[in-house]
Protein 1
Amino acid sequence: MELRRASSVDDVRDGELLLAGGTELVPLLRSGLVQGQSLVMVGTVVPRAVGPGKIGAGAPLAQLECDPTIPEVLREACRLAASPQLRNMGSLAGNLLQSTRCWYWRLNWPCRLHGGDECFARDGEHREHAIFANDYCASAHPSDVAAALLALDARLRTTTRELPLAELYRVPTEDDRRTTTLEPGEVILEVSFEECEQSVYLKAMERKRWAFPLVGVAAVRRGGATRVALAGVAPVPWLLEDGLDSATPLPRNAYKVDVARALVKRARATIGA
Amino acid sequence: MARLIRTEKEVEGRYEEVWLVVEEDSLDQWPAGPREIVGRDAVRIDGRERATGQAVYTADLQKPGMLHTAVLRSPYPRARVTSIDLAPALALPGVHAAIGPGDIEQLTADCSFQGEAVAAVCADTLGQARAALRAIACEFEVLEPLLDPDEAVRRGSLLGEARERARGDYERGLAEADVVVEAEFRTQVVLHNSMETHQAVVEWIGEGVEVHISTQYIWGIRDAVAQGLGLPADKVRVVCRYMGGGFGSKNGPDEYTFIAAELARRTNRPVKCALTRREENTAAGNRNATIQRLTVGARSDGTLTALGGEFVNAVGWSGWSSGTEGPMQMLYACPNVKTVTYGAKLNLPPMKAFRAPGFVEGTFGLEALLDELAAKLDLDPLELRRRNHTDEAPEGNEYSGKNLLECYRRAEPHWERRHDVRARSTETVKRGVGMASQIWYGGGGPPSYAWIRVGSDGRATVVTAMQDIGTGTRTAMAQIAAEELGIPLEHVTVTLGDSDHGPYATLSAGSSTTPSVGPAVRAAAADAREQIEEIAEQRGLKGASVAEVVDVLEDAQILGKGARGPNPTGKQVLTFGVQVAEVAVDIETGEVWVERIAAVHDVGRVINPLGASSQIEGGIIQGIGHTLSEERLHDPATGRLLTTTLDAYKLPTIADVPEIVSELIDVPDQHLTNLGSKGLGEPPIIPTAAAIANAIRDATGADVRQLPISREEMLRALREAEARQKEKVGAPAGV
């Protein structure tokens, strides 16, 4: 395997895998879930400056969690993610692009996300899985940070375009199994968002620290409007538009609806929405 | 004088009759209470080596020319290898040998559980070995697995006979009861997750083999390897100086040792075979799941009249059916008890002993059931337990020593906190306090031996071929020797972990190392001390320090030897205790966290209070994981495991650890050996789950019946309690 340092964000060749913090990519490579022969290190060329309303995509989570200019929802999402060691290494964009923790997917079962024709979780063990948009693939998106940014209505700048964060993600379909809209070679450079008045992130997990969200709830109040986004409840970060009554839980994850309902209520109360 | 006796030997609650040559234990016990060194805090004598990385664990071992192994294991719970070709693996760079089904007994083409070993390759590097493994062409025919424990019992797929145990008249006991409570409890599969995975380095030297292995029982490995390889036992040397955890899973050599031995034989090189974390969490053993269908009958004053249970141990493909019924049989005075225990043989990875096997699971069921009874009778749970306490062992034998009532008394201040704890509840976070009792073995037994040598510098070396599983027994042995010799602790070295260095010592399982080897070490030190006293007399130095007495000896040494004496005849040696847990439950999100656990245990004389509190903390933390977050899951359709990595299998983190208060009764068991000490490795993990479950009931009124107490289980139990409450409120008043 080859490893080289990119000279600029445009210095990414076909077929190269982008390596920033490596906390997600390296385990995926080691378990054979991502194949590739060449890695390009982009950590030094992707912006990592943190300013009001604008964050370089290479900034490590550890930097965001303690920066007072960052809205509370994002700081807390970072604080509650992973462990201090992982947050020191893991980058903001890397966090947004992480793959599902669905155990079937991680164990390389021939599921729909791997190009197969079955979602094993739906009929199998799905207690950590999706309660929304789960009829094709029940995987849950694990990013706390993505939910926070979705609630902030953040925008992304990449090497080729600008887009709302919501458009980075797509629910996989029979014709297109991808979960993001990122094109090969496209690099996320910066995340930006408007100021907000109040915000909060609440997270339910299976132990006090270092676990992916069973349910993460990000809520942001701006003007008279409140945006609520959830982590761990759908194959993509989930903007809560119709409330939780429209959830379609599976037999063993209906509890997630109760948990989400309680946390959404608390989150709204916390930010005075 | 040596004496040949026929005696019962107990390990982890399993008894067997054995012949033993025992030596009389002629020393009187020390008076109760802390001595100069014994009974006082001692930091681990090998702490610095361990913390600085100087201690060489099996996992650290690098021998010149050593080869590394990768093992091909069945990815299916039940499958037959229809074809296998090792040639492509052998053709790859760095590969030295490959073995497949039938080459050794431990490699098979008929796989009965996921992770069963099929083939193995050794190469210069681990990377080469793994690449070679991928090159092996292996076809499996996948067969239908048996996964459901109840189904296994119905079909008669059992490991051994069903175990029926009864005393009194159970049916009559139920008829005499004013109240009967029935409940079904389920516990999950949990994984040992030793920091050092199972591994061995095997090298053929001369006519024998040298085995470096992470093990709890170097002598057991020696015998098993000798038998497996057809060697005389004295041609097998087994070494384990430092150990990165075992918890019961490392009592035998397992497949990896024989794989390394065969590959070492074929290549004439030292060969290491080390399990990866995923292999470890697949095939290296587990605490099996249980189903417990329990019944208790009691009079309205709380006196138990009947206890009954059907216990199904989901053992897996092999292993043994542990004493899940033990607490129900042993803990209370109840005259009528009837249990049946099944060991379901399934196409799941075999169980192995895991820190008080059976009793952790059985105590959860029994002690949660008792609190459901207490709630029904509106009795104080601690008072209910006192009313059913017994000073006479219900199964016949007398207790060698029992201070459970004293444990209850010492638990009172912690128990009294429940009023304040409950008062700190809010609308959404309910707090409560629960307790559970502990009963377990832990007396150890003969044989175990120790030698000691004292040089003219007045320093002593204890030589015994035991192993320190990581609990700090090395330090405890040094304390015992220093105390008996009357020399400073820093002047004692302990040499252990090598079957070629020193005499036999027991396995480190069943909380048995300190109570088994400790008395032998004291006897050896006493033997040396007596010789030193004789020299002192001859030198006219009676009463002088050891260093002064021996300083003219130059190269001469004082040699002492000692043996573990017999256990008290006709007496049961057991450990007891109680834990009081304080928990908080978020009733909207189902989150449960533990805020405080107080533990009071009775294990006889305490050698090292500091080491003992570490054992208690470790047991409780492992117990919290078992209770709240750990679970090995398998896919229900195929039986394939889903949670073999540490991100999916959730051990507790430091953030999950509550305040832990540990107290020990510290009264020597006057019938037991020259020390009066019992083991403490296992007792602290036993009552934790039940104490937490009972605290949850105290906080919320909900009966949790299943481990782990996930949010799903917690919210289910809360809904059920709410429905029950509504029914009660809605029911017509009267009667």
Protein 2
Amino acid sequence: MGSKILATVAAIALAIVLGGIDYLTGREWAISAFYLLPTCIAAWVAGRWTGFAVGALCAAAWLISDLLNGATYQSPLIPIWNGIMLFAFFLVVVWLLTAFRTSHYYLEQTVERRTAALRAEIEERKRLEHAKIQAERLALVGSMAAQVAHEIRNPLGSISLNLDLIGGELNDAANSEARSFEECRVLLREMRSQVVRIHQVLQEYLQFGRMPKSERAALSLKGLFEEKLSFLQPLLNDKHVHLRKAFDADLPPVDGDPEQLWEAFLNVIRNAVDAMPDGGNLTVNTKKNGTTALVSISDDGRGMTHEEARNLFVPFFTTKSDGTGLGLAHTQQIVNEHGGKIDCTTSLGKGSTFSIELPLAVGCVT
Amino acid sequence: MSNLRNKSVLVVDDDPGMLRAMTRVLSKEGMRVTGVSDPTVVVAKLMESESRFDLVITDLRMPMFSGRGVLALASALPKLPVIIITAFGGPDAEAQAIQLGAFAFLEKPVAAAELIDVVKRALAPPPLIPEG
């Protein structure tokens, strides 16, 4: 708007100045072509009607400077006729120029729109490509995990049974030297717990590779969180983590598998708690975001480096000594399976926020 | 629970370590154990002595002849319970095995006490059905 007014004022001023110059040069210098300049500026910047008005002004300036100069014509009507002709010429120029301007504007708009669409399509393709690679990788990990499990469970089975046999032997002989045998029993218990630990790791791998098909139903996120978070409260108290909740009561249900989704959320919550070894605030929010439900889980813990944030969802990437690096990868897998997406913003030393978007259940999108 | 003494069991597992361990555990309970690490001889073992075995314990994934094959063979014989013990379990495999007639489905690693407990249950006489 500002540029239009500015251009109009400049065009009017230029028209008046040209009229003045025309008058002062005694009309002997051919400068009438310059009247086109303010007319064109006004038409291009401020539009057709301003162009017409400035064109009329220019024709008037030309006519007035002509009359004031006192030039003599065969008929007094000739200068008026010339002024009208000049104005008609300006009209045609303005009309053509603004027509061109309009089509140029629409063309620009179209190009912009198509470029945006193209860009979105490229992004979408990239995303799909990425998801495909991720899926292939996961399938590979799954089959590898199955293979590893098979290879390891046999010796584990053997160790497990042999341990029990040794335990039995010790029991039989325990009457004579009770103390040393008691020591052996402790060791055996320790070994058995190791067996259990290896078994658990294998379970985690297998679960990751062979995610069962989700059993979805309309699910209230508020209900899910209220129910499940209460079980976590003792753990949070233990870790000096203060839980803040804000659930949108009007949030329509999502279409989800409660067990899988809770597993996904729990992985994020576990990470958040681990990021606050000295305690802190854990915030869990849900709200409606267009046609999706937005769950955000924040902590004010140690945050992540750029490198950590980049590899957050990469399977086997972990910064924990006892982590498998599968937790968040599994979370992403579940969220993707539900047609949602997960993102993370983090600031080193200040904390991290995970945003999980899930589509609302069909029929609940308003 | 039934007494395991002198009961005869066929144990099939292609992993020698696992086979040895299971053999030892069951022998200690007084069972007569026939260990087989080559599943292809299972047919011969079962056929040559139809009434000799009281129980079959088999791995599921083996080369040439799978635990499912063992299960199918054993279920053709009367009153021969089969316990599956596998390194590659999961709910699907378990459901399938039970559907095919397995008495129980165990995942390795298994504790000796658990194995013995399942074996005892498999060999327990069927509960008496009250008349009327």
Protein 3
Amino acid sequence: MNIMQATIMDKELAALVQESKAHKSVYTDQRVFELEMERIWGKSWIYIGHESQVPETGDYISLEFANMPVLMVRDQTDSVQVLHNRCGHKGAKLVGKPCGNNGRFVCPYHGWTYKLDGQLVGVPHMAGYEGTKFDKAAPEYSMQKIRTERHRGFVFATLNKEAVDLKTWLGSAAITIDNLCDRAPEGEVEVAGGTLKFSHDCNWKLFTENLNDTMHPMVVHRSVVDAANQYISTLPEDSQNRTEAEIIPPFGASYEKFEASGIVGFPYGHHFDGGKTSIHADYSVDPDYKAAMLKAYGEQRTDEILGYNSHNTLYYPSVTFKSAIQNIRIVRPIAANKTIIETISFRLKGAPDSMLQRTLLYSRLINSNGSMVGADDLAVYLRVQQGLRSSGSDWIEFHRNYGSDIDLGDRLSNVGTSDLDMRTQFRAWKHYMVGAPL
Amino acid sequence: MSIDIPEIEQFLYQEASLLDRVNLDAWVDLYTDDGTYWMPVVPGQDDPINHISLIYDDRTIMEIRRRNYNHPRAASKELPIRSSHIIGNVQVLSTQTLEEGEDSITVSSNFHCVVYAADEQTLYAGTYTHVLVRVESRFKIRSKRVDIINCDAPLGAILSYI
């Protein structure tokens, strides 16, 4: 049992989130954060990685999962496992490197040794345990396995033995993962081009709530959009410099354009902006890529695949996908006011190299630590984190278009500028935190 | 080609001073038309195109960045950003005479750069690799590579050229 468990009663927690407003403590109170780790991040399916990151037996990556060290490893039976990165002896973190390959996991402290599937196989100087109650074969001394499922190569894990299966949990929101894979002429993607790690001194929800907040770009990103437009206006029509510069201006799209894009929300907190169109819809299509797609899928299916354009699809709470761009961002909460965002890019198998290069250009210009776009997003999250120290009000609101969400059976829908995204996330928050209906 | 180390050092100091004085218009003007500014995200990174970087700006993005820098609506730059550079260990790694008759010099140096922004002071330390070309008796920068020693750590926002 977590010792924090009794610090806030469920009734008090439930009162923190209402239908169109939330209490500031859900962003600022470390006790709420600890409960979120246990109840949201400990009950939901959490993004771990992609199986292309561990192609060979013994390959592993180490990462933080719900604020705990874990490993994704391809074991001796070619099965991808997610294991707690913790020795069964004195609890030392077994693996320190971010990735690698080995045949066994050996603890750096007392040399306990584990097979790739986590089973304890070696304890030095066993004689000392003779006649004690210690049993090397007892599962409690092995590296503990975490329940894991995959969807098209994407690996998710959950600490919740009662959780619905991954397919049910993803529901209709799986369309964006499917679309990302379908955009590859071979129907598969692989991780490529490295990782960006961006430290945010703010609550994790300020990041996830901004993903499909379409009322902010024209304000927050006006400075960079103005700068890009001013520069583009100095260029001749046929200048090659335009392609690169033109990634930025869609971030200044009008309220009307964002309103028309639409937002849909699903059970468990998933949601996306767009579908038929988004701010990514007007980026040009590489002719060699188009040819490879037509060859693989034919014209009708190619048009369907490339016609699906969502902006960000959040699989609440841990990962957001951009299928049209082929990157994802992973959310790693550290504390109530600290979060690390990792950006990972994907290669579309069977597509020309120019597609990955475009993805990386986008990730660099929009999502990197050096991005002019990302820097201003972070600056306003910090303003919220600072402003919430005020006793001027205890609440933040998300009323926009409240009361007009349309129930389409598997999802709720509203205009793109609505706060449906906030309401969707907080409905899931309340479900995980205090058992409210989805 | 004659190598004048003090002349190269003076040029590196002047370039850093333009950043410290936040004169990006003059700073961008130091670059050749095909000039690049690169801040890799992993040590020893050899490819800015097929691998992600913290920053990889050509003149296009430099032109946007300098216009963005002084925009009154940039939230991340509402408070002034100040920096102070120290450069040392200047070494000429190689020289080359290019076809057009231009001289190209690859220079390595170490730097410490302290950036103050939004109430916080950040220390960046690492190695610069400049490829300088001499154009009409003046140096221009064909490429500047900035390897910060903690490039693969979870860093905050990098608000200015280092």
